Amino acid sequence: MSTITIKNLTKTFDRQPVVREFNDVFKDGEFVTLLGPSGCGKTTMLRMIAGFEVPTSGEIWIDDRLVSGGKTFIPPERRDIGMVFQSYAVWPHMNVFDNVAYPLAIRHTPKDEIRSRVERMLEIVHLTRYAGRFPSQLSGGQQQRIALARALLAEPKVLLLDEPLSNLDAKLRESMRFEIKEITGQLGITVVYVTHDQTEAMAMSDRILLINNGVVQQSGTPEDIYNRPANPFVADFLGKVDFFSGTAEDGRIHLTDWDAFLPYPEMKVSGPAVVAIRPENISMSKGTDGIPAVIDRMYYLGDETDYRVTAGKAAVRVIGDGFSRHAFSKGDAVSLNIREFIVFPDDGQTQDQLMIRT
């Protein structure tokens, strides 16, 4: 297993910066996800680690070996990496066993060794009983597991995955998240995973790097980034959130459009503020102990009910559990209590910060 060290890495295309001064260390055995909107630079970063792109400047080290930087450039096949792409990239004329065995076969590895290693890998990815089948006889998830097994067969130091689940349906995508996490954890391999799907990133990662416009906006555990976002863009990209203008002073925040006050004893921000409130952090009742509001719309989604309410002049989103629909109706007068909120200084640039730049 390996550590990846990235120093002052940049990449430009036609003088347009795509990755800007990237610095980080991906620890041995860590599952790191590069998360962000399309065009943010995450796939370019992955391709530079793999050796499919040459950095404009900076260095990439795998353990104590410089693989990109200065006059040094080690090609992909000599970096001791495994890579899984968005497309399954399986050979349609080969059965499962031969697809997985292909990297060893072209190296003329002895047949007995090929058989033992492929059988072990098929067991790990739960494909043993499908060894003789062809890709056309398998589901999308099973085909993706062929690609994963093939990438892991050579026991690479690093596994790189570029949106490997985006072609799968929602149900299969969910199950494959946990399978990939389980398999890579079992092998103790260092993983760099690229996705634009926040749920994938939250479910699978030890650490998330959220990127926009080639710049890492925040690096941290899923819990850190979700509950302690560094800026409004991070709060907005990861999860559901609404932003409201307010003023922080005297240990509380006045929500202007709500015409309501929230306790804010820590006073990390004072003066004009932007308050980020996640809809699942608002509780709603029919009592009077809270901020008065009226239900405008409600949407039943099975495991939850999505409400749109008006509090003062503010349009507010509230997420309740699925059973809550029995307690409320459109037009009901309700009271809102906010369990958690995030405060940012209002520098007049919030709307600009929320823009996804490509």
Characterise this structure:
The protein is built from nine helices and 21 strands. The protein is of the alpha+beta class and 358 residues long. The strands form four sheets. Strands 7-8-9-3-10-11 form a six-stranded mixed beta sheet, with helices on both faces. The protein is globular, with a radius of gyration of 25 Å. The mean pLDDT is 92.
Please give a handful of descriptors for the protein shown.
OB fold (Dihydrolipoamide Acetyltransferase, E2P); six-stranded mixed beta sheet; five-stranded antiparallel beta sheet; 358 residues; 9 helices; 2 domains; globular; alpha+beta; Rossmann fold
Alpha-carbon Rg, integer: 25 Å
- The number of helical segments is 9
The structural domain count equals 2
CATH class of the largest domain: Alpha Beta
Query: Helices and strands: which structural class?
Result: alpha+beta
| Helix/strand order, N-terminal first | EEEHEEEEHHHEHEHEEHHEEEEEEEEEEH
Q: On the 0-100 scale, what is the average pLDDT?
A: 92
Largest sheet: 6 strands, mixed
N-C termini distance: 34 Å
Could you give me the name of the CATH homologous superfamily of the largest domain? Answer: P-loop containing nucleotide triphosphate hydrolases
Shape: globular
Q: Tell me the quaternary state.
A: single chain
State the total count of DSSP E strands: 21
Fraction of residues in helices?
A: 10-25%
Low-confidence stretches: none
Work out the strand percent: 35-45%
Q: Which fold name corresponds to the CATH topology of the largest domain? A: Rossmann fold
Strand order of the largest sheet: 7-8-9-3-10-11
CATH architecture of the largest domain: 3-Layer(aba) Sandwich
